[in-house]
Amino acid sequence: MAFCSLYLHSCRAYDGNPDNKEFSMTQQHTFATHPMPSAIAPKRNWLITGTSSGFGRALTEQLLARGDNVVATLRKVDALNDLKAEHGDRLHVMALDVTDGDAIQRVVDAAFATLGRIDVVISNAGYGLLGAAEEVTDAQIRHQLDTNVLGSIRVARAALPHLRKQGGGRLMQLSSMGGHIAFPALSLYHTSKWAMEGFYESLAQEVAPFNIQTTLVEPGSALTSFGSAGLVNASAMDAYDATAVGDTRRMLAASAFPTPGDAGKMAAAMIASVDQSPAPRRLLLGSDAYTLVHAALTDRLAAFEAQKDVAYSTDADIAANGTTPSNVPWSAAR
């Protein structure tokens, strides 16, 4: 069941407590297409959500090791006590629940006030909801979207006034290869990732005039503590047990899907990407991510081509506003 190798990348276990709301999404693969940071890399200030373990922790460790300053947010601040003891005032640890909009604004404001300037804001908190659409509850749906979608949007919105005031910066959003493809038993998780893809596509165009650049990080699966302990599980219905939904559930529970990625390498790849100008709109990481997303987009484009005649046949001869397919404003926007 190779479909389970997709994108699954929670970096710490979800304990079933609905109050346990911040999770870092892990993953990665060797970043071979762009140079890694040089030994004399510019020192930067970073704000990162979801830093308790896994990828968020790896990213924080690497940035501190190279001499950067980091504001790291998480729910249980004592998880970073060892790093705080080692790196002192270059690490600023702040408690944050990403479903609390007021708290996000306070923490982001405090982060900029503490460091004076923040070069890169990384929204990394999130988790996966496992279950068919019919199996999940309304409360689970709301929590999934409040954490993965609204939490990420709130972080970006809170940072934007500061980034504009300082003359620019970078926003990085942890998405997933699951923002381009979809698999059974993860419909709400995919909903959250596809939503962030659309949000950042538009946001990138909105903030470009202010020298603010964005990157969607789209990793495949990685060697982390994923599986049944890394997901919120909906109550299973017997009707789905013999379907692909049941297959997905069993493979995740058994940790039976391939995990080629390495969270540490992904952290290095993300750091390296900040040296690129312009920023990559998307950062696809992992051999599985490349293979599966490439195949999905190739198939999708072929399906679009097969529908070309039908698509064009539905245009008005002359639209009421005088536009034609050759002069609609968005035809050349990309």
How would you characterize the overall build of this protein?
With 334 residues, this protein is an alpha/beta fold. It has a single domain (2-310), classed as Rossmann fold, CATH 3.40.50.720. Helices cover 39% and strands 13% of the residues. The protein contains nine helices and nine strands. Strands 3-2-1-4-6-7-9 form a seven-stranded parallel β-sheet, sandwiched between helices. A two-stranded parallel ribbon has the order 5-8. The model is unreliable at 1-39 and 225-229 (pLDDT under 50).
Structural class: alpha/beta
Please outline the major beta sheet: 7 strands, parallel
Widest sheet, order of strands: 3-2-1-4-6-7-9
Helical stretch tally = 9
Element pattern in H and E: EHEHEHEEHEHEEHHEHH
How would you state the average pLDDT, rounded? Answer: 86
Strand content: 5-15%
CATH superfamily: NAD(P)-binding Rossmann-like Domain
- Spans where pLDDT lies below 50 across 5 or more residues: 1-39, 225-229
- Span from first to last CA? 36 Å
Q: What's the total number of strands?
A: 9
CATH A-level architecture? 3-Layer(aba) Sandwich
Shape: globular
Helix content: 25-40%
Rounded radius of gyration (Å):
21 Å
Count of separate structural domains: 1
CATH class category name: Alpha Beta
* CATH topology heading: Rossmann fold
GO molecular function: oxidoreductase activity
Keywords: Oxidoreductase
Pfam family, one: adh_short
Protein name: NAD(P)-dependent dehydrogenase (Short-subunit alcohol dehydrogenase family)
